[in-house]
Amino acid sequence: MSVIGSISPAAINALPLKGLDPAHKPVIAAPLPDGMRLAQPAANFGSVLEGLVSTVAEKQATSVDLTKQVLLGNNDQLHQSVIAMQEASVAFSLMVEVRNKLVESYQELMRMQV
């Protein structure tokens, strides 16, 4: 039996119809992509950087865990492991580019004549 065939009409009626419910107010702001934690104003710049680094570390740990599971034969979802590795790689590259821009900005400020 397919997944679609297993859904009963009662289950469909129980689904929230956000677009058709007149009491539902539309969301004006678009949600942030996965991994972005800047929904609330940060206390300081250091906490922003700390959040970025911890996000990258979490993505790398997830990637390592999924890869171990696949290599040990506990999980056959190879594509999830590859996606997690690529996601961690892109996050790390973004972090390195942000660092490079910060260092470049600092060096530019230090070259300014006062």
From TrEMBL:
Name of encoding gene: fliE
Gene Ontology CC: one annotated term: bacterial-type flagellum basal body
Subcellular location: Bacterial flagellum basal body
Keyword terms of this UniProt record: Bacterial flagellum, Cell projection, Cilium, Flagellum
Domain of life, source organism: Bacteria
Organism classification: Bacteria, Pseudomonadati, Verrucomicrobiota, Opitutia, Opitutales
One GO term (biological process): bacterial-type flagellum-dependent cell motility
Pfam family, one: FliE
GO MF term list: cytoskeletal motor activity; structural molecule activity
Species name: Oleiharenicola lentus
This protein's record includes keyword Cell membrane: no
Keyword Translocase among record annotations: no
Protein's recorded name: Flagellar hook-basal body complex protein FliE
InterPro entries per UniProt: FliE
Family of the protein in this entry: Belongs to the FliE family.
